[in-house]
Design goal:
Elements: H1 4-36, E1 43-48, E2 51-56, E3 59-63, H2 65-71, E4 82-83, E5 87-88, H3 90-99, H4 101-108, E6 111-115, E7 119-123
Length: 125
């Protein structure tokens, strides 16, 4: 049986290896994304030899809730793209963006959109 110190040392080594592996996986995912040119939101599967590679490049949108509280009265309540959790209702945001540019211009000041982590799935033959 290992001592606490030995377990702690092994755990720290495993975490370091995990971090290195995670960084390598992210670097490889970025290279795969670059090679495929997949920049748009959504997923697409690419084939090369015996490999199928699915690349997902999500966009994540969040709400600045303090800014929303200052802004929400400028938008009719029936168009508020929020649920009472509170959480952002992306369908509502998308509807406003597609259907009312004036309201979306007001709402956009509350939104932050940034790329999410690229996800890659590979399957061997």
């Amino acid at each position: 049986m290992m001592t606490l110190a030995q377990l702690a040392c092994a755990y720290a080594q495993a975490k370091a290896e995990e971090s290195r592996a995670t960084e390598l996986r992210r670097e490889l995912a970025a290279q795969i994304q670059s090679l495929t040119g997949h920049e748009s939101e959504g997923s697409k599967t690419y084939k090369d030899g015996d490999w199928k590679v699915t690349v997902k490049a999500p966009l994540n949108t969040s709400m600045d809730w303090e800014k929303w509280e200052e802004t929400k009265l400028a938008i009719p309540e029936q168009f508020w793209p929020i649920e009472m959790k509170p959480s952002l209702d992306m369908k509502g945001v998308q509807w406003i963006q597609d259907n009312d540019q004036t309201l979306y211009a007001i709402l956009a000041g509350c939104l932050t959109t940034k790329p999410g982590a690229v996800q890659v799935t590979v399957k061997g033959a």
